Amino acid sequence: MTRCVAGRWIAHRNQYTSRHGCLGHQYVGGRTEKGETVIPRPLLASMLALSLGCLAACTETGGLPLEAASTLPQSDAVYRVGTGDVLRVSTYMETDLTNEFTVLPNGKLAFPLTGEVDVAGMTTEEIRLMLEQRLGGGMVKNPKVAVNIAEFRPIYILGEVSKPGRYPFEANMTLQRAVAVAGGYTVRANSRQLILHRDGDTVNRRVPLEVKTQFTLRPGDTLTVPKRYF
Does the pTM exceed 0.70? Predict the structure, then answer.
């Protein structure tokens, strides 16, 4: 209980008035005289900051902390073929063996005479040598084959962007450019973090703001913009 004296509210015995105008009980050795536990404000602030930090380290993918951007795979000097890539295969003096072929979902290439052959994870040079070897086994005399990428497999930009979906790959596309292509961030987006999924890797990676204008995407990448929780 309190009473008003000369325009001021005075607390009864065993109570005090805080500098914020709130009534409380006298603090003695971590407890009030009523036996209630009291947490000092500095400790309470530290505990709150720690809990918020732990929560921010989690994502929508089951709360798994993401790897640091320093572990992001760098662009390879040699490109390796994957599902969805379109290959231009030219066989010298063999028009029936010259065409464009799409790498199937199983990672194979359906090529005349040889049937389906595994090409996922191979370079175009490795594919060229394999086809020449297969065709040269009694099918074609001294085959000369050239293999080039006619069209790279698409990328996927998902999450909190205005137009999530599948997009054609563009050379030297940065993370920042990819978000712009997808219509920019939504109002719920965590614009300081991006999640990259590459080459079947199931561990998503956090990408700090300063990396967005430097790191470039590769064909087949999936970029996800997570939600902002605070």
Answer: no
